[in-house]
Amino acid sequence: MRIEADWIRAPHLQRVMAMLEAGGHRALLVGGCVRNALIGAGVSDMDIATDAHPERVIALAQAAGLKPVPTGIEHGTVTVIADHVPHEITTFRRDIETHGRHATVAFSDRIEEDAARRDFTMNALYARADGIVLDPLGQGLADLGRRHLRFVGDPETRIREDYLRILRFFRFTAWYGAPDLGIDAEGLAACAANSAGLETLSRERIGAEMRKLLAAPDPAPAVAAMQVTGVLAQILPGADVRTLAPLVHLEGDLPPEPLRRLAALGGVEAPERLRLSVKEARALAAIRAALADDGPDAATAYRYGLSPARDAALIRAASLAQPLPEDWQNRLEYGATRVFPVKPADLMPALSGPALGQRLRELEARWIASGFTLTRDELLR
Question: 126 forms bridges with which residues in the sheet?
């Protein structure tokens, strides 16, 4: 099998691969770029694996007039800059000892040992500079063809090496698993049995994985499996998946929005548990406030803005299993663009301070209740 894509023929990438091969070493693309190229998905990161040790990579890069940067040399990684493009090169490795997210590794000259320490079979695929694909474990191509996400070797062993792999299992299933195949039963059981290990992970890493998972085209089956295994309750207490699948259906052609889907899941501790940024936490709070608003859709859009009101309308319809009216987006856009016609100066100097604020709120409530139809003069009378 061969990768036929423009990116693999890019001069900067070929230059780096040729540098390693000219030095007598293997140069192989690995992981996500190979997987995505084979299924026609977008490729962003191009990771390179080699049997050359980091010091050798640095020497070869310097001799070829390229710039090496020892970004993770203790783990065998050197970044080589070619034509202003960074290329991450990592030496083949084998695990000596694993303890959570940190492992003691030794460099290897065997691709089979490097493949055996990777997380999922579809990520243990390599490609030469000419695009020829290598499958050292003899499982990755078949599993990728079926869209069957499963761990390399024993699932519990892989998980205990790095408990973040539990969340990666659900995230990769959502993105790359076949909807009609179901979720790998052995992997699911291993995630359930080791879910307590998630407590050892930083909330930043958990939050990053959940964002990526909820950005999948349809994360509902994977998140439902998380709830069944107890993983969801472990990372987001109080969350409930029942609204998520109907929400994804109602979204239609709208771009996936992780915060909308997070709001649908619930879980009052989400900002803290998932280490949301200040901006994300405010956006989530706005969606929740719009959900709690029992007024007309246009009024909700006026109070909280178009995006929170739209998300709230989708979530509310999903939770009630009701279709949205055909003009629902027009009503939201109408409300979001209304401008209250009365200004504080219109009530001054007769009113000031708290009395002025109270009167403005009363008039605004009347204006909203009228469907935004009352004019400035009508309100002031």
Answer: 30, 134
φ, ψ for residue 126 (rounded to 5)?
-125, 160
Task: Specify whether the CB–CB gap between 50 and 25 falls below 8 A.
Answer: yes
Domain count, the chain: 2
**58-101 pLDDT tens trace:** 999 999 999 999 998 888 999 999 999 999 999 999 877 665 55
Q: Which of 146, 177, 209 marks a domain boundary?
A: 146
Q: Are 262 and 229 in contact (CB under 8 A)?
A: no
Phi and psi (nearest 5°) for 197? -65, -15
Domain boundary among the residues 146, 175, 210 is at 146
Is pTM beyond 0.85 here? yes
Q: Which domain holds residue 345?
A: 341-380
Phi, psi of 69 (to 5 degrees): -130, 120
CATH number for position 64: 3.30.460.10
* C-beta of residue 167 within 8 angstroms of C-beta of residue 218: no
Classify strands 85-91 and 47-50 as parallel, antiparallel or unpaired: parallel
Per the listing, tokens 């409530």 go with 365
